[in-house]
Amino acid sequence: MGGCFSKPKPVEVKVELSLLEKEKEVDGLSPNGKASPFADCRPNGALGHGSDDDSTPLPLYHKPRDYVEASVCHVKDLENGQMREVDLGSGRALLIKEHGEFSAIAHKCPHYGAPLVKGVLSKGHVRCPWHGACFNIATGDLEDFPGLDSLPIFQVRVEKDKVIIRANKQALQSQKRSKPMARCSAVINSSTGFSHVLIIGSGPAALVCAETLRQEGFTDRIVMCTMDRHPPYDRPKLSKSLESTAEQLRLRSVEFLQDHDIELLTEKEAVAIDVKTRSVTFEDGFRMEYRKLFIATGSKPKTMIYKGMDVSNVFHLRTPEDANSIARLANNKNAVIVGTSFVGMEVAAALTDKAHSVSVIGIETVPFKQALGEKVGKAIMKLFEVNRVKFYMLNEVSEMVGQHGQLKEVALKSGKVLRADVCVIGAGSIPATGFLKQGGIHMDSRGFITVNKMMQTSADGVYAGGDVVVFPFPARNNKKVNIPHWQMAHVHGRVAALSMMGKAAEIKTVPYFWSAMFGKTIRYAGYGEGFDDVIIQGDLDELRFVAFYTRSEEVVAVASMNYDPIVSRVAEVLGSGKTIKKRDVETGDISWLIDKGSQ
Known about the structure:
Layout: E1 67-74, E2 82-87, E3 92-98, E4 101-106, E5 120-122, E6 125-127, E7 134-136, E8 142-144, E9 153-159, E10 162-168, H1 169-174, E11 194-200, H2 204-215, E12 222-225, H3 246-249, H4 254-259, E13 262-265, E14 270-274, E15 279-282, E16 287-295, E17 299-301, E18 314-315, H5 320-330, E19 334-338, H6 342-351, E20 357-362, H7 369-372, H8 374-386, E21 389-393, E22 397-403, E23 406-412, E24 417-419, E25 422-425, E26 429-431, E27 449-450, E28 462-464, E29 469-473, E30 479-481, H9 486-500, E31 512-517, E32 520-526, E33 533-539, E34 544-551, E35 554-561, H10 566-575, H11 582-586
Parallel strand pairs: 11-12, 11-16, 12-13, 16-28, 18-25, 19-20, 19-25, 20-21, 27-29
Antiparallel strand pairs: 1-10, 2-3, 3-4, 4-9, 5-6, 6-7, 7-8, 9-10, 14-15, 15-16, 17-26, 22-23, 23-24, 29-30, 31-32, 32-35, 33-34, 34-35
């Protein structure tokens, strides 16, 4: 249980404890039987997803040798609101004390492996310090994104003032668990041109939509179509880890999708939608009808016009193959990055230890000025300059000239010539909605699909989510906004799936994104568009700072480097509906925002 048994057993505590063969136990039960205080924010009490390694639920009963039991601390070692990472001999767990009760869960965030002991504990859940995912401490369920998996939970009891944890060894090793999913009950020929739910795209919005449907008991056909040749993969890592393969980046394997009756059609590009006949036509002529449609096609890079367009060494980073080619061509050669988007700058950073030279050509004089402000942008720019990256302005470029199928150089108006053995265009993106122009689905002037709070479009039975949409954002009085974050796409997929099943759901999350360069990570939470001031605490020169973005007298977003878990702490405050005033962060004393609950 999460608290203490009323009648402690007189058992001698050991690291391993042999039990009677008759003892049978279910490890997946909540240790204290309490419902989540955020149950209204999540479908059916959980958003747990299976990993490739543990997609099959553990058997209901386990043999005693499958368990480990250990005394981990004295009952008074933890105060209320504190967490401690403890060793059970066969693995580690996170011990938590809140409201006088103990609970134990896996100690790593299943998204990227962040130590949850360094996260934020609040009101029955713990928030990851790196990317803001939330887990219920009683059930281990994933309550807010990013990520696909939930956490295993472990039994806790107190005997003679000793806190004892009993855990399944396999769960200790995996540090993640899945929520059971329904199977498709209909016998369907895979060539049949009809699907109860048709999903266009294979990013996080698409994948979470499909998995949530199955988790919520949906037993009809689900088909997911994608232009990609690979199963779903972690696209944000492409620009940070250029040499990673699709296999290394995968989110779900083909086998996982097959096991849960989520049909995946790769290299299928949608070219037209007819909302009257409820059908989608693909480039190869294949046509599929649907009952419900979810559009999650994401964004596509902005293109640039230059001489010698048909060249093989200029890339818009989209696929693992693109990333691998960039890394190979840049090895001991000269790289030119056009654009100072987060993707462009991440690629530039990743190439500095591979390329002979790295040059960045930007539209703005300071990278990230619009998103992070001039002061933060200049501090990050210095980090690049220290690492031998040269900056130039796009208006300085005279021409980009290709020869014999290769871009050879970028000529500047000053007469200087930049050698370009490989070039990456990172000048931003636009929504991939060109195929919808005659489809009868309302879009705004920029090509974004407009949806309501249930992720429904103007067409009956058609939903959309991720980078392609503008949606009513509660934190801005339901103003329709576009937030192209990986984390936000997960939320859209969940809400769309629940809406399809007639279950009330709304967006209840704080936007969260991150960017990694030179081993340093920028974390950001909130929605800062239109900020009118930036309050800096810490040291920009040392890249250890917190930046609070304000509109009028209210903090609307926060960014940090080397100041964990403050961004997750602010996300927790904003997510609770509270307001942080500008005056609260101007004083220089932000100790009230810094978590001190871990040991």
